[in-house]
């Protein structure tokens, strides 16, 4: 169960203005001595330049470590999320995801300069957009929970957007939050494990936690080591608490069981915490490193 050090709110969130966070390369818009002008006087750089804002136009765009389709996926942009671009070259944009602050490379074919403010978010686990307002029409794409949607009109039960026509029942207004992040996480059971994923078609351990929190209106950083700073430590576990190992995170769904995306099952599963601990110890991953309550 050794996945990664991995782990946004309905609204885009900003990076905490602390030196440790700003100097974390995962969260600092800096490359080869060039930094975003907003970091001038905060982060040392040889020059500071203005950035440009882009918006994701595909259901999920990979955010990679290097400008190559073969490079490691660190994170994803979901449809409608903003990406602050420092530089573009050869079909790749280097920048920072505004929702969770992660820095990396995104293919420019999945981005647009025409940004719009979202009015709704996808609340179904996943849903199609259609080319015309009919369930018999060809789909234009399959969109995951927490994608950000801008409504342009409505015809019957269908909402018109730049991506196509969505069934109204699968959307909620941007500020409408789910009351129970544990129940949200359980809806992902069976979803495949995907390193760096945040979509319902594949996500990792911290991506699951992040997406469950987003749907419930809570901010959440991307990686599990960042998530381990949330909340307060506890000794006796209950539903909703987070369990951390080195490079892994799970959510308690009861006093005894967890839900987590993991590479052992290559899926999101619910299982007894005792079994997960025993398996991890047997594989050399050690005991849990923290228990946190929000």
Outline the structure in words.
Strand 8 (92-97) and strand 9 (103-107) form a beta hairpin. The protein has three domains: 19-112, SH3 type barrels (Roll), CATH 2.30.30.40; 120-173, SH3 type barrels (Roll); 181-293, endopeptidase fold (from Nostoc punctiforme) (Alpha-Beta Complex). With 294 residues, the chain is mainly beta. 43% of the residues are buried. It has helices at 19-23, 181-186, 205-215, 224-227, 273-282, and strands at 30-31, 34-36, 47-49, 52-56, 60-64, 73-78, 82-89, 92-97, 103-107, 111-112, 120-122, 126-130, 139-144, 148-149, 153-155, 158-161, 164-167, 171-173, 198-199, 202-203, 232-233, 242-245, 248-252, 257-262, 267-272, 290-293. The chain is globular.
Based on the model shown, name its key terms.
294 residues; SH3 type barrels; endopeptidase fold (from Nostoc punctiforme); 3 domains; six-stranded antiparallel sheet; globular
Low-confidence stretches: 1-21
Helix/strand-derived category reads: mainly beta
Strand order of the largest sheet: 21-26-22-23-24-25
Q: What would you call the quaternary organization?
A: single chain
**What is the CATH topology descriptor of the largest domain?**
endopeptidase fold (from Nostoc punctiforme)
Given the C-alpha coordinates, what overall shape results? globular
Number of helices in the DSSP assignment: 5
Work out the count of structural domains. Answer: 3
Q: Regarding CATH, which class of the largest domain?
A: Alpha Beta
The description of the largest β-sheet is: 6 strands, antiparallel
Mean pLDDT: 93
How far apart lie the N and C ends?
24 Å
Helix content: 10-25%
How many DSSP-defined strands?
A: 26
Would you identify the CATH H-level superfamily of the largest domain? endopeptidase domain like (from Nostoc punctiforme)
CATH architecture level-2 label of the largest domain: Alpha-Beta Complex
Query: In percent terms, what proportion of residues is strand?
Result: 35-45%
Rg over CA atoms = 19 Å
């Amino acid at each position: 169960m050794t996945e990664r050090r991995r782990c946004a709110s309905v609204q885009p969130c900003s990076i905490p203005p602390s030196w440790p966070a700003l100097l974390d390369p995962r969260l600092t818009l800096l490359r080869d001595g060039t930094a975003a002008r907003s970091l001038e006087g905060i982060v040392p750089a040889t020059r500071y330049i203005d950035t440009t804002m882009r918006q994701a136009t595909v259901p999920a765009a990979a955010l990679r470590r290097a400008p190559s389709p073969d490079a490691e996926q660190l994170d994803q942009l979901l449809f409608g999320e903003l990406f602050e671009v420092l530089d573009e070259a050869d079909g790749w944009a280097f920048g920072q995801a505004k929702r969770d602050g992660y820095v990396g490379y995104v293919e420019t074919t999945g981005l647009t300069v025409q940004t719009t403010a979202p009015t709704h978010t996808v609340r179904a686990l996943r849903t199609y957009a259609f080319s015309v307002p009919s369930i018999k029409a060809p789909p234009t794409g399959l969109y995951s929970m927490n994608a950000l949607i801008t409504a342009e009109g409505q015809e019957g039960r269908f909402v018109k957007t730049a991506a196509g026509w969505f069934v109204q029942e699968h959307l909620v207004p941007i500020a409408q939050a789910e009351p129970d992040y544990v129940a949200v996480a359980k809806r992902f059971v069976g979803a495949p494990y995907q390193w760096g994923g945040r979509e319902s078609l594949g996500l990792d351990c911290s991506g699951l936690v992040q997406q469950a929190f987003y749907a419930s209106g809570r901010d959440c950083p991307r990686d599990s080591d960042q998530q381990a700073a949330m909340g307060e430590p506890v000794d006796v576990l209950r539903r909703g608490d987070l369990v951390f190992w080195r490079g892994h995170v799970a959510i308690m769904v009861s006093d005894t069981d967890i839900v987590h995306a993991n590479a052992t099952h290559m899926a999101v599963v619910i299982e007894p915490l005792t079994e997960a601990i025993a398996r991890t110890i047997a594989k050399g991953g050690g005991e849990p490193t923290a228990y946190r309550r929000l």
